[in-house]
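Supplementary Methods, section 5.1.

A reviewer requested that the exact input to the structure prediction be made available. We therefore reproduce it here, unchanged from the version used in the analyses.
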Amino acid sequence: MSKQSKQTYKVCFCFRRRFRLAATEAPPQIKSLFDQYSENGIMSVDHLQRFLVEVQKQEKATVEDAQAVMNSTAHIFHRKGFNLETFFKYLFGDDNPAIDLHRGVHHEMNAPLSHYFIFTGHNSYLTGNQLSSDCSDVPIVQALEKGVRVIELDIWPNSTKDDVHVLHGRTLTTPVQLIKCLKSIKNHAFVASEYPVVITLEDHLTTELQAKVAQMVTETFGDMLFTPDAESLGEFRSPESLKRRIIISTKPPKEYLKTKEGKISGSGSQKDNDSSEAWGREIPSYKSRSGADFKDDLEEEEEEEEEEELQDDNCAPEYRNLIGIHAGKGKGGLDDWLRVDPDKVRRLSLSEQELEKAAKTHGPQIVRFTQRNILRVYPKGIRFDSSNYNPLIGWMHGAQMVAFNMQGYGRSLWVMQGMFKANGGCGYVKKPDILMNKDAIFDPRVTLPVKMTLKVTVFMGEGWYYDFSHTHFDAYSPPDFYTRVGIAGVPADTIMKRTKAIEDSWIPAWNETFEFPLTVPELAILRIEVHEYDMSEKDDFGGQTCLPILELRKGIRAVPLYSQKGDKYKSVKLLMQFDLV
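The structure derived from this sequence is encoded token-by-token as follows.
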């Protein structure tokens, strides 16, 4: 904990300001709790057990559990128990997280794939923007190591038409060989999770090259490759039955159409991509989209949106036989796209704006479709900067594959990362029963009654002094931190609130409590951000995290914060309290 007493800031050329650096000490509420659960200044094992049950809401905690806590923190406590300082260090330490990191996979994993939200990447091979960045296997490896389970590859003929490259078509992105990407997927697919990896292919190949891809895929993955049978095309297999398997998903092969070689994309409107704020713009509200927005969106459909009549008379059968999840939209309108076939399942891809338009008239129909089939949603084409959209638009309609640009960053991606902290971070999160009820189809546009209320107290924070330079936030004084806390969820639940700013303190103590009524807590993500108030310029970013609400541990917990790019800070964390009533 911080023991420095003074810090000096240079002001102009001839003056220096000195600020006292307070030691990190327990907030009043923590001191009061310690007094309540201790005797003569010592919290014994029995006291701690009672504290775990009554305050931390760990109803099954035993004296042995309390002893284990003390043993795990033996380096900080007196042999008779905790004093106030060591009790506070325990609460604010790594052994008291807001989400149980040791819980592992705990959702039921034997349902069909369509019953799960799946951690999904978009244009997984791009290192940066969508127009001119390099294509590489490096971002694919990084995504897999973070638990992403769906990797997208756009496959095109090389210049001599005798090999297959991965690149973003009609742009200036530099290609990478398909075989390199496949080998990297094989080597890193199951580092973070044993559950299946799906490779979605956007195919722009001749029949001969499709056959070559089939050979590459078969030889690279061998027994890891899931080969479909008639039964698996009638209903999806479960994640449990597909552990350590690779699944190919694409449209069934069709005759190569040279007309698909269009012009290179250039500049376009980026009015929805304003990233002038250091941490990215606020997540767009599902409620706030205007007709003009949709009109602009529809001017720039991606090539994956192009659908032509499937032609099976001249295709590579060995390629078709590899497809474990068939993709296809059909020729008609929305009703045809969302038709549920009792005899076979498929994957439907919609752009974010297509889904938003469809949701206005076909919300429950989309939910019904996703109970049995897979819906993939992808970013609109003018997101040249690899930004993302509000993932709740997809999740509240049951979309399993909400495809995100993992190489970008910003608030939408933080929410995505928060969702997939659930279920042990395995990349598969069981969809809530409300989305799977066939008798009463969920309508995302209807506001439901409040089901529970989340109560959040933000006590204090620390760690910036160690993780940032001392003039990072303000050249002339210590920082003025405030915390934003709120909900990403269905429209009725979505809200952000904030604490007051604490002036000139590296160890801000806010001690503020907020309440959030939740109508669909199953789809709610707790958003937490810290910023440093700046009167003359943009507020500085001080850390963020997003946490799935139904996996929060009640009680007083330490909450580590992450950078804009999603990397955990070494020292920065908040002390918070959670309760669900």
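The two ends are 34 Å apart (CA to CA). These observations are discussed further in the main text.
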